[in-house]
Design goal:
- This protein has twelve helices and no strands.
- By secondary structure, it is an all-alpha fold.
């Protein structure tokens, strides 16, 4: 029987898949918003609104805000800011289909960074994935008229920042209040984006209804909504299973690009995207199967010990 405090696993998987749907939608709405709003201003507007919403949601919790939470939240917020700033500049310069696939490379960047910083072993599966991803990127570079363009490069850098953000969360955050630490993160991104807005020249901005709705969607769903759901539900699955679920992100961006923006990839580009996608999924899949074998082995050993005691 399921514990009243623990959601059913079907509910957990549904919620995590739902977050990938909203994250995938952020590619489409960001692309629409960037038609009229400069990237740095888009991030500023998005996270200013997200900070305001989280401030209202946090309410009575604010009395528990302390220096430790502010320090840790700001540290993670810097990586989150670099992730989102590179995300919008990447989406601005390439198709959301290519950006979605390239952003997913964060799964392969994580073991690379852990190897560089902490000296952990990369593993054969991850190494094979990195080689496959390199082949896929080469196909993307040679398959399009413009080759591997500036937006593709920034989207790849964004994947690196996503990996840094995930590692920073695991290394820096303690038992902080989810709402308060998210509030500090969003406020930090707002400050970073505000600084970039002041530094870079600002072109003419015409805020139409679609542009405003795009900012509202990105602030509410992939930011406040998804962050809260992820923190609430991801704890019930292993990192490997969560990683497999999150590989759905580029699928949604590919679908959105095809149906709503009329994006069409050439055969070589599609092959490159497919190889990059498999480069991410295969190491995760092998890890998942290994986890299942270990669980079954230990369950069998435990059952044998119980029978031996009878």
């Amino acid at each position: 029987m399921t514990s009243p405090h623990k959601p059913a696993m079907g509910q957990v998987y549904f919620v995590l898949i739902l977050t990938t749907f909203f994250w995938g939608g952020s590619f489409l709405f960001t692309k629409i918003g960037l038609r009229e709003i400069p990237p740095q201003l888009f991030v500023l507007m998005r996270f200013s609104l997200a900070t305001l919403i989280m401030l209202l949601v946090s309410g009575p919790r604010l009395r528990n805000l302390n220096r430790g939470t502010v320090r840790r939240g700001a540290t993670v917020g810097v990586t989150l800011g670099l992730t989102n700033i590179s995300f919008v500049f990447g989406v601005q310069g390439t198709s959301i289909s290519r950006a979605g696939i390239l952003n997913n490379l964060f799964v392969l960047f994580i073991p690379l960074l852990v190897k560089i910083v902490w000296g952990d072993r990369i593993g054969r599966n991850n190494l094979a994935g990195i080689v496959m991803a390199s082949v896929g990127i080469w196909l993307l570079a040679t398959g399009a008229n413009e080759g591997f363009n500036r937006g593709d490069l920034i989207s790849t850098f964004c994947a690196l920042m996503i990996a840094c953000q995930i590692i920073t969360v695991s290394k820096v955050l303690k038992d902080d209040d989810v709402y308060l630490v998210s509030l500090v993160q969003f406020a930090t991104v707002t400050l970073l984006a505000g600084g970039i807005v002041l530094l870079l020249p600002m072109p003419h901005v015409a805020l139409s209804r679609p542009a405003i709705l795009s900012v509202a969607y990105c602030a509410l769903f992939p930011t406040v909504f998804c962050f809260t759901l992820q923190n609430a539900y991801q704890r019930y699955v292993t990192a490997t299973r969560a990683g497999l679920i999150y590989t759905l992100d580029p699928i949604w961006s590919l679908i959105a690009g095809f149906f709503f923006l009329g994006e069409r990839l050439g055969a070589c580009e599609l092959l490159g995207c497919g190889i990059i996608f498999m480069a991410v999924v295969i190491p995760l899949g092998v890890r998942y199967l290994t986890e299942r074998r270990l669980v079954r082995r230990y369950a069998g050993m435990a059952a044998d010990r119980v029978q031996g005691m009878d």
